[in-house]
Amino acid sequence: MGNATESRVAVITGASSGIGREAAKALARDGWRVFAIGRNPKRCAQAEAEISAAAADAGRVTMICADLALLAETARAAEQILASTDRVDALLNNAGGVTAERHITAEGNENTFASNHLGHFLLTQKLLPLLRNSAAQTAPGTTRVVSVSSTGHEHTEGLDWDDLQTMREFVSGVAYCRAKLANILFTRELARRHGPEGITALVMHPGVVHSNFASHAEPGMQEYMKTLDGETPEVAADTLIWLASAAEPGTRAGEYFYLRESIPTSAAAQDAAAAEKLWEESEKLVAGW
What we know:
By secondary structure, the protein is α/β, with parallel strands linked by helices. The protein has a single domain (about 1-285), classed as NAD(P)-binding Rossmann-like Domain (Rossmann fold). The protein is built from 8 helices and 8 strands; from the N terminus they run E-H-E-H-E-H-E-H-E-H-E-H-H-E-E-H. An 8-stranded mixed beta sheet has the order 3-2-1-4-5-6-7-8, sandwiched between helices. The longest helix is centred in the middle third of the chain and has 27 residues, at about 110-135. The termini are far apart.
């Protein structure tokens, strides 16, 4: 991409391993200023070394260790970015995971919902001024927010508004599928609310990826994942990189992609009223942060 991307800034969550690490390496190699967010300190250190080694300029890579399931840590990560740059051209909401048992964070949120959706909702809200600044300085469609969902969203009929975080009757797979539905509804509403400001919201399915994604899942899910044909993180990251940086996706706001192709979502993921309600409920949950 050469000189055209030298001043561009990317924020990538889940960048200490898997898809996020590969995307961070590729964008850093192409001259982007990269803020890479990861949860595990040891993996963060390893990823920072790899991303910096790949970068056109190692000084343009910043690794931030933060757990997006915790709003306090998410807010801290956002403040560090806000203090370091005046723009974000691509926010890649990639981090995700699943736990076998119900885990309520110290802040009172269910971990699967918080780490897959709520943390990214807060991070996006905090970084909106930087996204708007980028959009004001670049051609329409250039500034992107890309979220990573899953075909798991197809296995739920919708969100439970009486138990949005699946706390009362926790089932690992149900919580995960609802969180992945939330990723798509979030993208839909982000496109509606902030598309007119020049921020293009996109979402993708990464495929079955051989990474540490399901390492904390219930044993049955771990065994099932092993039976599926999978893709390497590099293959899955290709679509994430393309959505962040190629020209074509800039005209495809709100669409859902797999292997660079737009694919249909479930009916529940097309529910505009649910998308708006999820946004409003999420605003309540992150209020004060």
